[in-house]
User: What shape does this take?
Amino acid sequence: YQPAPLSEKTPPDTFVVQISVLYKVPVIYSIVSGDGKGYFIIDPSTGIVRTRKNLKLEDFPVSFNVRATDSSNPSIFNDVSVNVEVIDENDFPPVFPSSLLEKRLEENSPATQIIQLKAQDSDTGRNGFLTYGILSGDGLKFRIDEATGILYSTASFDYEEERTEYQVVIYAEDDGIPEKKRGYCTVVIKIID
Assistant: This one.
């Protein structure tokens, strides 16, 4: 049996799967092994498995065995295995180590790499897969590599003719389900003479 994966936020007493065997007399269902942490409970007569308590992501997947026993002769039984997976909910937004960074850039430098931004996300899988983008700032002067988080200038700067300070707001976005979450970082770029 491979029931649908459960969310890590599944409350206790949630239906997981129904075990059923075709047999000439009623059977008694029981969980015999594999559920060492006691996450599941089975109804002895219907074979319905439910959660017993809140699920901890790091304990899964769990594979446990259910036994169907002949109610009139306990020496006749059959075992089946049930594999339960738990999926990581998108709990955490990406976080930059610092929300404000300052970089100096010499005027007239050609287009160049300014800084690599790296956010952390405590979720696993898609929920922790990050892409980077520029939320605001001078789009003509800067670009970011969405995969690596490297911020580049795209043109040279003239200290005398243009602004000497730029603020670029960068975001990191996870690929989360059910919703994507973002974290932000502001980079202040000072043009020096």
Summary: The mean pLDDT is 94. The longest strand covers residues 182-192.
